[in-house]
Amino acid sequence: MSSNNIENVLVLQGGGSLGAFGCGVFKALANNNIKIHIVAGTSIGGINAAIIAGSVDKEHPERTLEQFWLELGGNSVNLTHPVLDWLFDKSRGQLIRAAENHLPTTDEVNALLNTISSILYGNDKFFVPRWRADYALKDPQYFNPSRWTYIYDHSPVVKTLAKYIDYNKLQPGGNPNARLIMTAVNVLTSEPLTFDSSRQKITPKHILATSGYPSYSFPWVQVEEGVYAWDGGLLSNTPFGEVIDASPVIDKRLFFVENYPRITDKLPDNLTEVYHRARDIMFSDKSHHSIKMAKVITRYLKYIEELYQIIDKNIDPARIDKKQLEKIHRNYTKMKREHGAEIKNIFRIIRDEPLPRFYENTDYSIEAIKNSIKNGESKTNQILEKKSLINKI
To answer: What are the strands, taking DSSP E only, across the chain?
Structure first.
């Protein structure tokens, strides 16, 4: 990096299997020798961030992250049941008679099958349904689903992550690959929760908390006495504000990974696309106002500093109330300490959506994972080349 006074910050959105896109983004940044100083995320973005920060391979955390995703993809169940094949063939026959020009493609059918696989079987390396027979002896509410508050147990991801994360790094003085910031929300109070490796030791329960998304039917997690946490994406899927609050002084260069595009060039054509677009809007980046305000504060701080220097150099001190000037300077120093970081650059790496599918974030097939990684890597390289950043950062 060209300047020691700028932190490179990678902000990773949530999005289930779409998190593989963020893996590709980080892989491209690492391959272009761009050092990340702070990595922040929520939901699957938080899991990605934890692997990046605490990777067992300090020299190549991008390889560790990719291995994690390939393991998830390699463990997905491929649905090829003859009855399902017959149903889809019959469905396609009906569609042919109804509208020959609106057939689902093979990719769309496969993606839907992969989603059905996730719903029925989960993924043993990440999450599994509570109705599985092996839960009968260990789940007290197995035979009482009316009392269930979640359907899928995502604790298996802890065992999977044990191969990829050195938790000793994720604590104050732990020398992580990057400072880790993850977010969650207090189920009882709706208050945001921030887990910061420079201020506390990050443990598996924090990772389960940041990824415990209730709409995926994942459980809440007790992170400390009386504090029950859900996925931070319920409040904000882009944890930018938490980064500024955690590191308010050092200037920033931001890399935003956007799994849910904010902008589209066409209106939805059907209800499926309506729900898809609504979901994208719900989880898209909402940090524009915060970024705008941060820039306004930076300008005001510069103006105050310039005015103070003018007064100091050009006005006779005897004509100024010394106590009042000292009070102004103290307030200015406090404000700069709390809000002095300047946002130097923002680079948005946005996932492509050539064929919007409402269920795309539940496709953990190896094909989908590899394609998402490739897409993230390609989009990042394009942006770096376009901005001529490769040799400058």
So the answer is: 6-12, 38-41, 128-129, 152-153, 179-186, 192-196, 221-224, 227-231, 251-258, 343-350
Are 392 and 2 a contacting pair, CB within 8 Å?
Answer: yes
Q: Which amino acid is at 121?
A: Y
76: left (phi over 0), alpha (psi -120 to 50) or beta: beta
Which residue, among 45, 67, 217, 55, has the nearest Cα to 127 in the 3D structure? 217
Distance, CA of 120 to chain centre: 25
3-state DSSP assignment of residue 170? coil
User: Nearest 5 degrees, angle CA 23-CA 256-CA 3?
Assistant: 100
CA–CA dist 374, 198 (Å, integer): 32
**pLDDT tens for residues 208-253?**
999 999 999 999 999 999 999 999 999 999 999 898 888 888 889 9
Give CA–CA dist 272/17, Å, rounded. 19
One-letter amino acid of 111 = A
For residue 219 the two structure tokens come to 């459980």
Q: What is the tens place of the pLDDT at every residue in 129-162?
A: 999 999 999 999 999 999 999 999 999 999 999 9
The pair of three-digit structure tokens given for residue 280, joined into one six-digit string: 């994208």
**pTM (2 d.p.):** 0.85
Sign of CA dihedral 33, 34, 35, 41: negative
